[in-house]
Amino acid sequence: MKLLEDKILTDGQVYPGGVLKVGSFLNHQIDVPFVNELGKEFYRLYKDEGVNKILTIEASGIGIACLVAQNFNVPVVFAKKNQTKNIAGEVYTSKVVSFTHGREYDIIVSKEFLGPDDKVLIIDDFLANGSALQGLIKLVEDSGAKLAGCGIVIEKGFQPGGDMIRKTGVRVESLAIIDDMTDDGQITFRS
Amino acid sequence: MKLLEDKILTDGQVYPGGVLKVGSFLNHQIDVPFVNELGKEFYRLYKDEGVNKILTIEASGIGIACLVAQNFNVPVVFAKKNQTKNIAGEVYTSKVVSFTHGREYDIIVSKEFLGPDDKVLIIDDFLANGSALQGLIKLVEDSGAKLAGCGIVIEKGFQPGGDMIRKTGVRVESLAIIDDMTDDGQITFRS
Q1: Which of B18, B89, B122, B188 is the most buried (most CB within 10 A)?
Q2: b vs e for A145-178, b when ≥16 Cβ sit within 10 Å of the residue's Cβ?
Q3: Rounded to whole angstroms, how far apart are CA atoms A133 and A135?
Q4: Which structural domain range is residue B177 located in?
Q5: Is residue A65 part of a domain?
Q6: CB within 8 Å: B80 and A28
Q7: Which residues contact A141 (CB under 8 A, 6 or more apart)?
Q8: Chain B residue with minimum CA distance to A32
Q9: Tens of pLDDT, residues A50-68
C-alpha cells in the first residue's frame, strides 16, 4: 500500500539490527486519520469473508483493530498478556515469545468472547518472527471459531513469521512488507 | 448518558467489593459501534476546546481513545506502563498506584509526542481512586501542554478520584457516574 510505504519512509526511523520505529504514527502516537485509511484497506481485502469479530493483542494492536472494526461494524476482542489470576477453564491461553524483550509470556482470551459461531479477522501492527500471530491463531483454533485471515500493518519480510504462517494455509495480508533494511536507514519494500 | 447506563445495567456484572465488570463491551471485548456513540458524546462535550491531541493509557484506554479521536480528527498518544529501558530525559514519567493489583508502576510518554503546543483531552475507561488520571495529568503538566479536560466512560462516584481531581480545577466529564453498587448487583447512577 503506497500510502503506508510513503509514511514509513517519511516518518519511520531505522536503527541497526533491523529495528524500525514507527512510534510517531502507529504504536505510541497513533495517527488516527491515517490509520483509518489502513482500516478501509483491510475492509476492502476481507469484506466478503463474513467476518463478525476482530481479534488483536494488547497494547499496540488495539487502536488499529478498533479503527478496522468499524468498517465491518463488528466488535474487537483483545488478548491480554500475563494475566495469571484467571482460573483455568474460563480462558483460552497460548504462549508467545517476545524476541525484542527476550522473554516468554501467556496471552489469554475469555471463553465468553470467542467461540464456534465466530469468523475472526486477526489484526496486528507488526509481523516479524510470528510468535504473537501464532499465539492468536491458536486461540482462534482452540475456541472452535473460523479464521478469515490476518491483517498486518508492517511485515518484516526478512524475518520468518510471514512465510511460516502462510505455509500453514492461513491468509496473511500485510499492507507493507519490508524485504530489507540497512543499518544506514535504506528500506526496500516487496513489490 | 442514558445509552451507557442502560448498557451497564444490561451487560455489566457486579461483584462484591465494588467490582464492576464490563469486559463484554468496554475493556476485553470492545463493542465498537457502541463505543463510537460514546465518542460522539465526548466530542459534543469538548468540541469547542481546541483539542489537538488525545492522551490515554494502555491497554484498555486505547481503543476508546481512537474512536473518540476520529471525531476531533486528531492523533492519540498512549502512555506506556513499566518501560524501564527508556533513558531519562527522553520521556515524561509519573507514578501510578493500582489499587486493583496492589502495586505501583511508572507510566511514560516520549517527549516527542507531547509539548507546549498541545491542547490535550485525556480519555480513560474508568475513574475510581484517580491515580491513573492524576498520573496522566502530571505528564501533561510536565510537558507544558494545556489540558482541555478529562473524558471518562465510567466513574465510580463512591470512590474519591473524581471529586479530588475536580477540586484541583480540572474539568472531568464522566458519561456515567455510579454512586452506589450493592453486593447483590443493584446499581445507582448519579442523576
Answers
A1: B122
A2: bbbbbbbbbbbbbebebbeebeeeebebbbbbbb
A3: 5
A4: 2-189
A5: yes
A6: yes
A7: A147
A8: B75
A9: 999 999 999 999 999 999 9
Q: Which residues of B touch A120 (CB under 8 A)?
A: none
Residue linked to cell 539490527: A17
Nearest CA in chain A to B66: A63
Cα(B143)–Cα(B120) distance, integer angstroms: 11
Domain assignment of residue A116, yes or no = yes
> What is the total count of domains within chain B?
1
Residue B26 is given by DSSP the state: I
Q: What is the count of residue pairs from A and B with beta carbons less than 8 Å apart?
A: 104
Dump pLDDT digits (tens) for A135-185. Answer: 999 999 999 999 999 999 999 999 999 999 999 999 999 999 999 999 888
- Here the CATH number for the domain that contains residue B121 is 3.40.50.2020
Closest CA to B110 of B66, B77, B133: B77
Q: What is the pLDDT of residues B78-126, one digit of tens each?
A: 999 975 565 556 999 999 998 777 789 999 999 999 999 999 999 999 9
Q: What length does chain B have?
A: 191
**Which segments of chain A are extended strands (E)?**
13-15, 19-21, 29-30, 53-57, 76-81, 91-98, 103-110, 119-127, 146-156, 172-181, 187-189
The shortest C-alpha distance from B58 to chain A (Å) reads 6
Distance from CA of A161 to the nearest CA of B (A): 25
How many other C-beta atoms are found inside a 10 Å radius of the C-beta of residue B181?
Answer: 20
- Which residues in chain A have their CB less than 8 angstroms from residue B25's CB? 75
Q: Does the beta-carbon distance from B33 to A73 stay under 8 Å?
A: yes
pTM assigned to the model: 0.96
DSSP B41-60: HHHHHHTTS---EEEEETTH
Q: Is residue A173 part of a domain?
A: yes
A181 Cα to chain B: minimum distance (Å): 24
The Cα–Cα gap between B7 and B117 comes to 37
Nearest beta carbon to residue B66 from set A67, A73, A80: A67
Task: Identify all chain B residues contacting A76, using CB atoms and an 8 Å cutoff.
Answer: 29-30, 32, 63
With 80 as the cut, is the pLDDT of residue B130 above it?
yes
Q: How far is B69 from chain A (nearest CA, A)?
A: 7
